[in-house]
Amino acid sequence: MCKGLATLPATCMKSAKDIKHKIGFLLHKPEFPPDKEQIKEKTNIAKRVSPADVEKWKLSFNNLMNSEAGRTVFTTFLKAEFSQENMEFWKACEKYKMSAPKNMAGKAKQIYDQYVAADALNEVNLDSATREETRQNLSNAGPFCFDNAQQKIFTLMEKDSYRRFLYSKLIQDLSPLPTTTQLSALEKRGGMRGCSENGGA
């Protein structure tokens, strides 16, 4: 790496890598209409979701993440934004917490290598301090190994992708009711949200 690039903040380098990845994807993406699998996925989602569910998701990100159907719909949105690795990492952390203690060290290393390590295949956007803290936690992997990193990604999704999700075509298609609660919910919501305490709806 040239000396000039080496002096850039890690966030700038991450943004540059994301842009490069997205441009490369778009250059190689065939211009075809949605395939049968995509249509089937949206149809299945619509069948599982009620207007009441959607209105509840609009009230808070916690409501969305505490719902299995909500996470499924949100993941569909994240795929369109090329950021589904955030949800995949969050779910991997939730599953990791339920692992048997004897299996935690191996699973923690897998999660770190796939999502946390610099230049990981599905690298999530973490600051260098959190990344290093998580790396050190691997030496004594326990249920809380990824707590800080998971919270950072949770907050990132809440403050960034979730706000766009609320006004996306996807959520509009699922919600025949007027969007009356979005702005008030956004104004009232503040502070950091904790991770889900359960993985079910």
Automatic annotation (TrEMBL):
Entry-linked InterPro entries: RGS (IPR016137), RGS_sf (IPR036305), RGS_subdomain_2 (IPR044926)
Pfam families assigned to the protein according to its UniProt record, in alphabetical order: RGS (PF00615)
PROSITE patterns, alphabetized: RGS
Domain RGS span(s) in chain numbering: 60-175
Protein's recorded name: Regulator of G-protein signaling 4-like
Lineage, top ranks: Eukaryota, Metazoa, Chordata, Craniata, Vertebrata
